[in-house]
Amino acid sequence: HVKGLNAKLTHQQHHFPGKVLATTHVHLDEHLCAEMIMVKGRGEDIRSLAGRLGREKGVLHAKLAAGTTGSDLL
Hints:
74 residues, alpha+beta, Alpha-Beta Plaits, two-stranded antiparallel sheet, 2 helices
């Protein structure tokens, strides 16, 4: 754990009001946690948020997995 990392991640999310739908924090072992963040919005905004989160000291791995509701495909 990096001291204050959870607060920093939450602070970054607050820069994107209405985009973060849910977060999940999982303890993998005594030293490692995983944080999953579900978001909704324009791709540009989501990529910006993902980049900001991934640059925080203590984040070991960050990956953006994009999807769609499919409504724009009809």
